[in-house]
Design goal:
The complex is a heterotrimer of chains A (549), B (324) and C (313). With 549 residues, chain A is α+β, with helices and mostly antiparallel strands. Chain A has helices spanning 3-34, 62-71, 118-131, 175-178, 183-188, 237-246, 257-263, 301-310, 313-320, 353-362, 393-407, 420-427, 449-453, 472-483, 487-504, 541-545, and strands spanning 42-47, 76-78, 84-86, 89-94, 100-105, 108-109, 115-116, 143-150, 153-158, 200-206, 210-215, 228-233, 251-252, 269-275, 278-284, 325-327, 383-389, 412-418, 437-443, 507-520, 524-525, 547-548. Chain A is built from 16 helices and 22 strands. Residues 1-39 of chain A have low confidence and may be disordered. Chain B is built from twelve helices and no strands. The chains are: A alpha+beta (549), B mainly alpha (324), C mainly alpha (313).
């Protein structure tokens, strides 16, 4: 080979080497910088879903609330036992008829230096009420008027006694920034630099990569140890778990079962499994709308009971969740403690195919043509369409198991997998819902039975009520419990409501999944276990209380 | 004069095709079921007022022809609509992710062409030998590899097994750099595996093209004459072979751009490289139609323009080629 | 998305396909045997053919001998992602099912999709290419603009759009790959038709007043067929790759198991991080071998038909 080519080739090779050597050096450096240390006092959280917006009034994402709850304060917060603690309100009292709440506010400063007063708090509640548009509106539906008699007092007047104190849910926003915005303007407002009174100030959001906040040194509470908190977005749970192992992140609040199991035994990593406030369920279209395309046979309670008895919820937990959950029964997950109604196993509508067959035969559904599928007296087959979200693998597994279980009792299910958007638009088509059965799930919006119990209400058709259930008696039970302040009385009502809805079998709740989290033991310490998760939960206190190792 | 008329005609056709693509894009994404309101209803209490406000913000309350007109008007201002998931302008989102993708694609394209041509030339020079057959075989196997699978294997080998290279993102998160050079090095380290994936998978084209071009040149009669006259082989090789190879390389490069852009989606997904491909992948998962619409419109425009440019370049280089 | 196959050394110019496999006379009867002779004696061609036969045998016989039951999901978590053993030759997947059987079943599906999609794109491409090349002028112009338009059509949004109406399925994947694959074929066929049209025997026959359709059927088509055939074999490889990519990105048929969906599930279930190599390596290797088989065979056939290309050996 001639020298000319050799020379060029050499140059090229040299060029490659020139890139490679620093590349390797960087890798070694990167490995060094990846050695876990809390020296920089940055608390790094790894997750796979990003917030949608930093606007607290337009967000519906749990991840957004997770970040915003450190930037904005509420009147009250949940502590590590999920009990109310002081926030911007140092104390609060109910009036004798429980229809008014008076909050005593502390002095605080907004992140842009302006002082916080009761006018801001009043403004917040007024705006949410008047614009009628945000996830917090549901807590001010009965709000009649607000008063700020002086700079440190706020009074809220409701038309009904409030069992749930809305101060626990609503973030307080600054009047001087949000004043004068119409409902449309609010919807379009990105709030790219949120200003709150919280323990952390917003720094930046690099979309698709990370969010960063830094400590607010003029916050009214005890200074948290982390000078910065950063949430890092991973595209894939696998890579996220790897990063926990290498120490690139300090805590991962949501890890899928198989991967979580793979983390146990990893050096300096502790995995925790906590009861959650979520469930996954099978929903049955019981709409009374004459335009509904749902199979009318599903309105027969006998059929729904059979569907419930056909499936073994524990098997679903074992297979779909790798054992990391609890077989479910009623609307309130076990994480809700005493609010959850514990139905004894012998009385549960679960795992009894023989009983399912008996019920169906007694109701007149028999296999009349030897096809393996039962038919009604007028020849209509028990054949239904089943839909699930394709990207939620646990739901897909559950749907397949459900289908196979139902086949054994003579009910045929035809499974179609859809993307989340299509499933949502199919199910929530309130004008003419054209579907039979779905597999989906719910997360509780607040730590109060009100949210979950409030799903199957008549007035929620067109909103949350995904199965179009409407029952006067149930509505009555719900209304009663939401205005009952006496704890014991409310508890009894909440139990009764759960039992009633369970017996009607419009929902077949499959499991309460465990909240699977993992954290490093060599960077931050002081992580407290909390029902629902140490982070990505209703309480932000773990962020505030952890200290470097 | 004929040249200008010809050019004018080409530009006119380009404009028409662009318009067709834009309209098709709009039609495709605006007859689809599902809209942001339904996406959000699932997450929580969505009041009637909220639904109305959101519908208004997205302009979904207008009849479809009005929406089309608004779409075209916005397009002329560089606006691509509003994202369903982020509720931010799509153009802003794309802009935030664009830089990373351009970096990846530039690195991959450059390396593929340069390395491919070099390897091909050397293979041609050593034709029939072991270097030649190994190169050709490896290139052909490389071509048969699915891009995403190659990425997965590299992740497994270099990331999980050997811990040699970072396997996600474009920089170490929260890293503090003592100097800008360290930052560039960090990015380069993260860039290595994604680029390598794209190069492995696309290099075959250039290796084979370069190789064949050089072989053809070497075999030509005038080469024997020139060598007989004593002219340095390498000078002839380079001047003639390069000229011979230039045309197919230009066309291959145009094809490459198209491939690399679509390959970017796969690579960015596997390596979590925060570029437009990743944005598209996530938007696909979330069915965020405006973002998908906007991203693919940009993609189509880029490919059309690149093909147009390569056509012109081809014209300039080879006067033999004329439109039928 | 699909990597267009390019016969080595001949890259399509902007308005033409690769150099057509021109024969100076109409098809000879012995040509098939000549092609076979060449392919078999060419080293890479032989490898291609052998791989091709193996693949077909595995895809057809495999699922018959080792049927895959997609509902055989394990009832405990202990069976998930097990390494290869005597009982499970390729281990188990994230639902506890046998990966080996899934692999065979997926081979069948992947080939099916590849062949069906190719059939669509070849028929469409050939038809449009012939019509455009033969009739010329404004028909040609119009069809070529149409071709340009379909050439920039990306597959992902099309799949999403169709899936939104009909739900994700294999049918949609096949349709979309077919619809986006025909332009390249059309261009190649058009070039060949163009040059054929100018051939002496065609002009002679036309001056005799033979109707167009007869010319197309008797004279043009048989001369274009070898090229179409060579191109088909090459396109199948691209179609299989395209299906794998679309399925990996989550756009495939969620109920059917193809190599692409296996890789998608592996990625989602964290198989890479867990080192479950038996789950994500075999499907990829399968794809590579199948694509190679078609590419090498097709490439060899291409060379057999076009002696000009042989210079590159």
């Amino acid at each position: 080979m001639s020298a000319g080519i050799r020379r060029r080739e050499f140059l090229k090779r040299a060029g490659l080497l020139a890139v490679a050597v620093p590349g390797v050096a960087t890798v070694l450096d990167a490995c060094a910088s990846v050695v876990p240390t809390a020296k920089a006092r940055i608390l790094r959280v790894g997750w796979t879903i990003e917030p949608d917006t930093m606007n607290p009034l337009t967000t519906y994402s749990t991840e957004a609330v997770e970040v915003l709850q450190l930037v904005y304060d509420q009147l009250m917060h949940y502590d590590l036992e999920l009990k109310p603690e002081a926030g911007l309100a140092t104390s609060w009292t109910y009036s004798t008829d429980a229809k008014s709440i008076t909050y005593t506010l502390r002095s605080a400063t907004w992140h842009d230096g302006k002082p916080f007063t009761s006018a801001d708090a009043k403004f917040t509640f007024d705006l949410i009420k008047s614009s009628k548009a945000s996830q917090y509106y549901q807590w001010v539906q009965n709000l009649v008027s607000t008063e700020a008699p002086n700079a440190t007092t706020l009074v809220l007047h409701f038309s009904q006694p409030q069992a749930f104190n809305p101060g626990l849910a609503v973030p307080i926003i600054p009047q001087h920034i949000w004043t004068g915005m119409s409902a449309t303007k609010i919807q379009k407002f990105a709030n790219a630099h949120p200003i709150g009174t919280g323990p952390y100030k917003f720094v930046k959001w690099v979309k698709g990569t990370s969010i960063e906040i830094e400590r607010n040194d003029s916050w009214w509470g005890t200074k948290p140890a982390a000078s910065k908190v950063s949430w890092i977005l991973f595209q894939n749970e696998d890579v996220m778990a790897q990063s926990l192992k290498t120490g690139a992140v300090d805590i991962c609040p949501e890890i899928p079962p198989t991967i979580w199991k793979g983390l146990s035994g990893a050096a300096h990593v502790k995995t925790v499994s906590l009861p959650s406030f979520s469930f996954h369920h099978i929903g049955i279209n019981v709409s009374d709308n004459p335009k509904s395309g749902g199979n009318p046979l599903l309105k027969d309670r006998a059929v729904r009971l059979a569907l419930s008895y056909a499936v073994d919820r524990q098997q679903l937990v074992n297979v779909a969740l790798d054992g990391l959950g609890t077989a479910a029964s009623t609307l309130l997950p076990v994480g809700f403690g005493e609010w959850h109604l514990d139905i004894p196993e012998s009385q549960q509508l679960n795992a009894d195919p023989a009983k399912a067959r008996t019920i169906l035969t007694a109701a007149g559904y028999v296999d009349r043509n030897g096809s393996g599928v039962r038919t009604s007296k007028d020849g209509k087959p028990l054949s239904f369409r089943l839909i699930a979200i394709q990207s939620t693998s646990v739901d897909v597994a559950a749907a397949q198991l459900f289908r196979d279980a139902c086949a054994k009792v003579g009910i045929q299910l035809k499974l179609t997998l859809l993307d989340a958007n299509s499933l949502g638009s199919t199910v929530y088509n309130a004008h003419a819902p054209n579907w039979d059965i779905f597999v989906w799930g719910w997360d509780a919006g607040v730590y109060d039975p009100d949210y979950m119990l409030g799903i199957p209400l008549c007035n929620q058709i067109g909103s949350n009520n995904d199965v179009y259930y409407c029952n006067r008696h149930y509505d009555q039970l719900y209304n009663q419990q939401s205005v009952t302040i006496d704890h014991a009385a409310r508890l009894a009502l909440v139990h009764e409501a759960q039992q009633y809805y369970y017996d009607d079998a419009a929902y077949i709740i499959m499991w309460y999944q465990d909240k699977l989290q993992g954290y490093r033991t060599d960077t931050w310490q002081g992580w407290q276990r909390v029902n629902g998760g140490m982070v990505l939960n209703f309480t932000r206190d773990n962020y505030l209380k952890v200290r470097p190792v | 004069m004929a040249r200008f008329r010809y050019l004018g005609r080409k530009v006119a056709w380009l404009a028409i095709t662009l318009y067709g693509v834009v309209t098709f894009n709009f039609v495709l994404f605006h007859v689809l079921p599902g809209n942001p309101v339904q996406l959000l209803v699932r997450s929580g209490h969505l009041t009637q007022q909220a639904q109305a406000a959101i519908t208004k913000v997205y302009g979904l309350n207008h009849p479809i022809l009005v929406q089309y007109a608004i779409y075209l008007r916005d397009l002329l201002h560089g606006q691509l609509g509003l994202s369903y998931t982020y509720r931010e302008p799509v153009s802003t989102l794309l802009g935030q992710y664009l830089g990373n993708t351009v970096l990846l694609l530039a690195a991959a394209t450059l390396l593929t062409i340069v390395l491919g041509v070099l390897v091909g030339v050397i293979a041609a020079n050593r034709r029939g030998g072991r270097y030649d057959s190994v190169t050709v075989t490896t290139s052909v196997i490389g071509w048969s590899l699915p891009t995403f699978w190659t990425g997965l294997i590299l992740v497994f080998v270099f990331g999980v097994w050997l811990h040699a290279f970072p396997i996600f993102g474009s920089q170490t998160p929260n890293a503090i750099y003592a100097s800008p050079w360290l930052r560039y090095e960090d990015i380069a380290a993260h860039l290595f595996l994604p680029t390598l994936t794209l190069v492995i998978v696309n290099i075959a084209q250039f290796v084979l093209v370069a190789r064949v071009s050089v072989i053809e040149v070497l075999a030509e009669d005038f080469m024997l004459t020139a060598r007989a006259k004593g002219l340095a082989r390498r000078r002839i090789l380079w001047s003639h072979a390069v000229r011979n190879a230039l045309l197919p390389i230009v066309t291959s490069s145009a094809l490459l751009i198209g491939l690399v852009v679509s390959g970017a989606i796969e690579v960015e997904t596997v390596f979590s490289w925060p570029g437009m491909g990743l944005l598209v992948y996530n938007s696909v998962l979330n069915r965020d139609y405006p973002v998908i619409e906007g991203a693919f419109l940009v993609f189509a425009i880029v490919v059309l323009l690149v093909n147009f440019a390569s056509d012109l370049l081809y014209q300039a280089l080879d006067p033999r080629v004329r439109e039928a | 998305m699909v990597r267009p196959i390019v016969a080595a050394g001949h890259v399509p110019g902007p308005d033409e396909g690769p150099v057509p496999a021109v024969s100076s006379e109409p098809v000879k009867r012995g040509q098939l045997r000549d092609v076979w002779e060449f392919v078999w004696h060419d080293r890479l061609g032989r490898v291609g053919v052998v791989a091709f036969v193996l693949v077909v045998i595995i895809a057809v016989a495999g699922p018959l001998i080792f049927p895959f039951n997609s509902a055989a999901v394990t009832s405990t978590s202990a069976g998930v992602l097990l390494p290869p053993s005597g009982q499970h030759w390729m281990g188990t997947d994230e639902l506890g099912r046998d990966v080996f059987r899934a692999f065979l079943s997926a081979a069948h599906i992947s080939l099916e999709v590849g062949l069906a999609a190719t059939a669509i794109s070849m028929i469409l491409g050939a038809a449009i290419g012939i019509v455009a090349g033969y009739y010329g002028r404004w028909i040609d112009n119009l069809l070529m603009r149409l071709t340009d338009f379909f050439l920039v059509l990306p597959q992902i949004p099309l799949v999403i759009a169709l899936a939104a109406f009909f739900g994700q399925s294999l049918g949609i994947i096949i349709l979309v790959i077919g619809m986006t694959g025909w332009p390249t074929t059309a261009r190649i066929v058009r070039s060949q038709t163009l040059s054929l049209r100018e051939r002496q025997f065609i002009t002679r026959v036309r001056s005799l007043g033979t109707p167009d359709w007869r010319i197309l059927r008797v004279h043009i088509l048989p001369n274009v067929m070898p090229l179409i055939f060579a191109n088909t074999v090459l396109v199948i490889g691209g179609a299989i790759l395209a299906e794998a990519t679309l399925s990996f990105l989550g756009l495939g048929d969620p109920v059917q198991v193809s190599w692409g969906t296996m890789l998608h599930s592996a990625f989602d279930a964290g198989a890479i991080g867990r080192g479950a190599w038996w789950y994500f390596i075999p499907p990829g290797v399968g794809i590579v071998i199948v694509v190679l088989a078609f590419t090498l065979t097709g490439h060899a056939i291409d060379q057999a038909l076009n002696p000009r290309l042989r210079g590159s050996r």
